[in-house]
């Protein structure tokens, strides 16, 4: 508004001194996390930011650029939305335990919990079940809290004890408890699934005629389930429905759910983990379907990384997780917004 005092840039001493305690906490947490992985026998890796494909999930959007080859020809590249493709190639190469503090990029994301450029902490264990990665997540979060000596996490009026035993809750159980919906009854792989979920959710969320099963699932999750998660202690939400498997394998004894989990604290999603899919043809099918939906919704699509699909076929059984490191630092340092815990906020947003 006219007459308002302009906001000083982030690098002005007055603003920086207010942010500096959070940035010092970031350094302490980084060291503590590295120590954890060293104790567990992990190798820290650094993978490429520029990728042939940034990922093939419908709602993820990546900045696009070009490289110019020595002969002057041009090739499209993308800034990665995750280091996942590169890390899985290293699993195929024979690395048994790896982790990375990865700079990643996502278009269409900005807010108290979102940045267009941020740090993702990602790690993988070859030959391990996905509940081993759940245990890792709890330990990493506790190490972060220990590094800052914070007693509890707090965000928007909610609190969580990072040292308490976490709540384990299936997605189906959460939908039943918080929304009164029998989620698994709407998953058969048939054409009636969307109608079944729409009928169950009709009085709980606002629906549109073009909502897919996934859209309705997401609305219920965001509006009725997530606000209750990570209250008082961490929540591990697991056994995601198979239509939301992404890069996770479907459970052998229950094909309606996948080996996927997410970790929440104070209603904030911190981590997203998988028992990794190693069926390359199934992965190709999922990617192809996701890109068709992306084209329908957004008028764009990303190529498939054929080198990645070849690596999936050679991968050992493995489990892995992506943890939003900036969000973890925010909660463990007591910051109110994610941009308080990054050394330089996004370009043009000072």
TrEMBL record:
GO molecular function annotation: ATP binding; lysine-tRNA ligase activity; translation elongation factor activity; tRNA binding
Top-level taxon of origin: Bacteria
GO biological process: lysyl-tRNA aminoacylation
PROSITE patterns the record matches: AA_TRNA_LIGASE_II
Entry keyword ATP-binding: yes
GO cellular component: cytosol
Record keywords, A-Z: ATP-binding, Elongation factor, Ligase, Nucleotide-binding, Protein biosynthesis
Family matches, as SUPFAM superfamilies: Class II aaRS and biotin synthetases (SSF55681)
Chain ranges of the Aminoacyl-transfer RNA synthetases class-II family profile domain: 29-345
InterPro entries documented for this protein: Aa-tRNA-synt_II (IPR004364), aa-tRNA-synth_II (IPR006195), aa-tRNA-synth_II/BPL/LPL (IPR045864), EpmA (IPR004525), Lys-tRNA-synth_II_C (IPR018149)
Keyword ATP-binding in annotation: yes
Pfam families: tRNA-synt_2
NCBIfam families found in the cross-reference section: genX (TIGR00462), PRK09350.1 (NF006828)
Protein name per Swiss-Prot or TrEMBL: Elongation factor P--(R)-beta-lysine ligase
Taxonomic source organism: Bradyrhizobium neotropicale
